[in-house]
Amino acid sequence: MSKRVKRKTQAAEVLEQASAARIQLLSNKQALVDGCGGVLEYSSEKIKLDIGNKEVSFLGLNLSMDDFNLYEINIKGDIMSIEFSD
Length: 86
What we know:
It contains 1 helix and 6 strands.
């Protein structure tokens, strides 16, 4: 592989990582999601988010969303599991 092709490949990988969502868990009581593309489903037992090329679901009890804007969402409650899907 030439140096030029290798650099282009590395640059594409960096861009892909930069656009990926970040999920930060604070115990099982709070999740901060940065890079959210939208809310797909919302109830006190399930919150499903669009995070680009995947979807993520937070399952638990007494779930709620606070402090959300176009790109960040703060999920609170008793988070019991997290599922990823295409």
